[in-house]
Amino acid sequence: MFRYHDGHFKTTPPAVVTFRGYTRRFGDLNRTEWDEAGYNEAFPITRKPYTTYQTRWVKGEDLIYREEILATTTDEEAQSADKAVLTRKKRDRLLAQSDWTQLVDSCLDTEAMVLWQSYRQALRDIPQQEGFPSFIEWPEQPETE
């Protein structure tokens, strides 16, 4: 929970506040007294990565501030670059997990080895797919006996 005070948001309120000339423990104040002392509960929006927000804070009838979105701008290029990195990491992990299939002493017969070679080539070709990195058609892993 956040608290709004003097134009700033704090994650924890002070232990004591001066209210109506008296020092009181913060927990002893009700919501209306918090408001009079200049402290209010506040709920920020959940922000998405690569997005810039223009917002404003609106105090409701319940004396709680809520952040309201006025406009957003998403950095599509940075978002796409991050997706590409994550996709390549997944692809690399799948390649590493199938490395054993290409060893000379693996238990695979020639036909199975060719299937695994095709699968691994399809994994390496993922960055060349039409919708990369947003839309990926992942190849199916061959059956292993």
Structure commentary:
The chain is 30% helix and 27% strand. The protein contains 3 helices and 7 strands, in the order E-E-E-E-H-E-E-E-H-H. It has helices at 31-37, 76-97, 110-124, and strands spanning 2-5, 8-10, 16-19, 22-25, 39-43, 51-59, 65-74. A 5-stranded mixed beta sheet has the order 2-1-5-7-6, with helices on one face. Strands 3-4 form a two-stranded antiparallel sheet. The model has no long low-confidence stretch (mean pLDDT 85). It holds the Pfam family Phage_tail_APC. It comes from Pseudodesulfovibrio piezophilus (strain DSM 21447 / JCM 15486 / C1TLV30). Residues 86-143 form the Phage tail assembly chaperone-like domain. This is Phage tail assembly chaperone-like domain-containing protein.
- Gyration radius, rounded: 28 Å
What quaternary form is this?
single chain
Average pLDDT rating: 85
Helical content (DSSP H or I, runs of 4+): 25-40%
Shape: elongated
Strand order in the sheet with the most strands: 2-1-5-7-6
Overall number of domains: 2
Please give the number of β-strands. Answer: 7
**Gap between N and C termini:** 54 Å
Give a short account of the largest sheet: 5 strands, mixed
Low-confidence stretches: none
Order of helices and strands: EEEEHEEEHH
Structural class: alpha+beta
Q: Treating each run of at least 4 consecutive H or I residues as one helix, how many helices?
A: 3
> What share of residues are in beta strands?
25-35%
Protein name: Phage tail assembly chaperone-like domain-containing protein
Domain Phage tail assembly chaperone-like: 86-143
Pfam family, one: Phage_tail_APC
